[in-house]
Write a structure and sequence with these properties.
The chain is of the alpha/beta class. The protein is built from 13 helices and 12 strands.
Length: about 350
C-alpha cells in the first residue's frame, strides 16, 4: 500500500527545508519497508505568482484526499505591501479553515547537546519538555475585522464560542494524561470577556479529567514564567494569538526557531505538519537554513497521521545523535567548526536513522 503525502513547499526557505523533510521520509520508508508517494502543490506567494490565489482550489482538494501534508513556509517582502489585496498568509488561514484544523501542537523538547545554545541560563531551561496546544481556527485571527478607514480607525475582534474552546481543551487534557498530567491554560481573563469564557469553559472540561491538574495563568505572567522556569510547564493550552506568541518565545529555549516542529490536527482526515519558523527570505537559496524543525515535523507526521510510532521515535533519536556529534547549521553553530548546510544536515540525519535502527535490532 502506498501512502500519499501532499507537499506544499511554499516560499523563501520553504522548498529547501521541505526537500530535507522528504529525504527523511524516504529514508524511513526504505529503512522500515514502507511506501510513500509525494505530490507537490503551490501555496502562499508562489501560488499567487502562479495562479493569483494563495490557496488554489486544486491544492485544497489534493489535501482533502491525503492523510497528511508537509508544509514549508509562506510569505516574504515581495508580497508584504500593506496595501496588497491578496496576501500569502491568507492561504495558510484558508488551509486551516478548509481542513478544519483547530488544534496546533507545538512540542518544545531540548536536546541535551543544545543546552548551551539557548540564550537563557542552564538552570532556567534544563529538563524543559513542554507542548503548546494552540487553538487554531478561532480568536482574533478569524474574528470580524475592519481595515483602516478614512478616519484612521481599524479593528480586529477576538471571538470564541464555547464549543470551540471545549474541543481544544479535550485535546490538551488527553495529551497531558499521556505526559506529566498538568495543563496550564493561558488567558487574559482579568480584561477580556472572551478570556473569561475561555477560563470558565476550560475549568468545566477539567472536571472530566480528575487525574490531570489544571492551572490558569494570565498571558503576561505566562510569558514571564516560561523564561523564569520552563521545566515547570507540561501542556500549555492557549487561544490562537497567545499560542502563536508563546511558542515563538519557547523556541528560544532550544536556541533557534529553526528547531521547532508543529502538527495541525482537526476534524478532517488530513493533518498539516510544518516547522514553526517563517520563510526567512534573507537566507533563501543559500543552503544554510536549519531543516531540523521540518524533519521533526515529519516525525510528528509519522506519529499522528500514520501511527508509525517507532519510526517517529527513530527520527527524533537520529536528530539527537547528529546534534550530540557536534553538527550544527549556521543558526546554531556559533564558533563551532562543525557547521553544515541544509542538505548536509539532512544527509547526516538520514544516515543516523539507519544507524539507530541497526542499534535497536
Amino acid at each position: 500500500m502506498i501512502t500519499q503525502i501532499v507537499v506544499l513547499p511554499g516560499d523563501g526557505i520553504g522548498p529547501e527545508v521541505v526537500r530535507e523533510g522528504i529525504k527523511i521520509l524516504r529514508t524511513v520508508a526504505e529503512t522500515f519497508g514502507h511506501r510513500f508517494a509525494f505530490a507537490e502543490h503551490p501555496i502562499g506567494g508562489a501560488a499567487i505568482d502562479a495562479v493569483g490565489s494563495p490557496l488554489p482550489p486544486e491544492t485544497l482538494a489534493a489535501c482533502h484526499e491525503a492523510p497528511a501534508v508537509l508544509l514549508g513556509a509562506i510569505g516574504g517582502p515581495k508580497w508584504s505591501e500593506t496595501t496588497a489585496t491578496v496576501r500569502p498568509e491568507q492561504g495558510l488561514l484558508d488551509l486551516r479553515e478548509g481542513l478544519g484544523l483547530y488544534a496546533n501542537l507545538r512540542p518544545v523538547r531540548l536536546s541535551p547537546a543544545l543546552l548551551s545554545a539557548s540564550p537563557l541560563k542552564l538552570e532556567r531551561i534544563d529538563g524543559a519538555d513542554l507542548v503548546v496546544v494552540r487553538e487554531l481556527t478561532g480568536g482574533i485571527y478569524f474574528g470580524h475585522r475592519q481595515e483602516a478607514d478614512e478616519d484612521g480607525s481599524a479593528f480586529d475582534t477576538m471571538h470564541y464560542t464555547e464549543p470551540e474552546i471545549v474541543r481544544i481543551a479535550h485535546i490538551a487534557f488527553r495529551l497531558a494524561g499521556e505526559r506529566r498530567r498538568l495543563v496550564t491554560s493561558i488567558d487574559k481573563a482579568n480584561v477580556l470577556a472572551s478570556s473569561r469564557l475561555w477560563r470558565r469553559t476550560v475549568s468545566g472540561v477539567a472536571k472530566e479529567y480528575p487525574d490531570v491538574r489544571l492551572e490558569h495563568l494570565l498571558i503576561d505572567s505566562a510569558a514571564m514564567q516560561l523564561l523564569r522556569c520552563a521545566p515547570d510547564f507540561d501542556v500549555m493550552l492557549t487561544p490562537n494569538m497567545f499560542g502563536d506568541i508563546l511558542s515563538d518565545e519557547a523556541s528560544m529555549l532550544t536556541g533557534s526557531l529553526g528547531m521547532l516542529p508543529s502538527a495541525s490536527l482537526g476534524r478532517s482526515g488530513c493533518a498539516v505538519y510544518e516547522p514553526v519558523h517563517g520563510s526567512a527570505p534573507d537566507i533563501a537559496d543559500q543552503g544554510i537554513a536549519n531543516p531540523i524543525g521540518t524533519i521533526l515535523s515529519a516525525a510528528l507526521l509519522l506519529r499522528h497521521s500514520l501511527a508509525l510510532h517507532d519510526e517517529a521515535g527513530t527520527v527524533e533519536h537520529a536528530v539527537d545523535k547528529v546534534l550530540d556529534a557536534g553538527w550544527r547549521t549556521a543558526d546554531l553553530a556559533g564558533s563551532s567548526n562543525s557547521s553544515v548546510g541544509t542538505a548536509e544536515m539532512g544527509d547526516r540525519i538520514a544516515e543516523a536513522i539507519q544507524q539507530v535502527r541497526e542499534e535497536r535490532e
